[in-house]
Design brief:
The complex is a heterodimer of chains A (113) and B (113).
Chain A: E1 4-5, E2 10-14, E3 19-25, E4 32-38, E5 45-51, E6 56-58, E7 62-67, E8 72-77, E9 86-93, E10 102-103, E11 107-112
Parallel strand pairs in A: 2-11
Antiparallel strand pairs in A: 1-3, 3-8, 4-5, 4-9, 6-7, 7-8, 9-10, 9-11
Chain B: E1 4-7, E2 10-13, E3 19-25, E4 31-37, E5 43-49, E6 56-57, E7 64-68, E8 74-78, E9 87-94, E10 103-104, E11 108-112
Classes of the chains: A mainly beta (113), B mainly beta (113).
Amino acid sequence: GESVGLHLPTLSVQEGDNSIINCAYSNSASDYFIWYKQESGKGPQFIIDIRSNMDKRQGQRVTVLLNKTVKHLSLQIAATQPGDSAVYFCAEALTGGSYIPTFGRGTSLIVHP
Amino acid sequence: NAGVTQTPKFQVLKTGQSMTLQCAQDMNHNSMYWYRQDPGMGLRLIYYSASEGTTDKGEVPNGYNVSRLNKREFSLRLESAAPSQTSVYFCASSDGTRGNTIYFGEGSWLTVV
C-alpha cells in the first residue's frame, strides 16, 4: 500500500536556529495532512494541519508547507528551543473515505543549547 | 478534561498470557483507534471504531481483538500474548469528522517475555 515517509531520521540543530523537517507522501488522493510532536514517554500531540486546497499554513513558531506537485510536506520551526526536541511525525489522510490517518516513521529533532 | 486515558501504563506478560488494555475518552468523540508503535517505525493501526457499535481491522490486527463497550470506551485484548507483541500501544480518538484532529493517550508499554 501507499505510505508516508520522512527524508531524515535525525535532525540536529542549535538553539535559536530554524528547523525544517521534511515528509514525502505517495498517495496523491490524500487531502489532509497533519504534523504531530511526540516527546519521550508521551503520546503524539497535534501541532498543525493543512488541507490540500492550501499551500501554506502558519501557527505559533511553526509553518507547514504543502507541495502537491511533488507530494512533499514540510514543517518549519522558527527559533528552535530545547523544548522542541522530540520526534515529529507527519500523517496523511483521505477525507473522502474512513478517517484513518497514515503515519510516517518520524524524525528525531535534537536541539543543542 | 482528561482527554484520552489508557491503562495500564506498563505491563509485563509471559508468552501465552492474556490481557486487556483499557481506553476511555471524555471528549464525546465518535471514533476511536488503537495503534502500536515499534522502534524505527511509525504508528500502525491495529483496529478502529468509527462509531459506537462498529469496529474494523486496521493494518496489523492479527493477535488482537477489540470491544467498543460504549461511546467512551474502546478496549484492546491480547488473547495469547507473543513476544512480537512487545510494543507501545496508543489509544486515540476523534470526533470522526473527516479532517479533524486525532487525540492520543499517553501510551501503554507492553513487554511479552
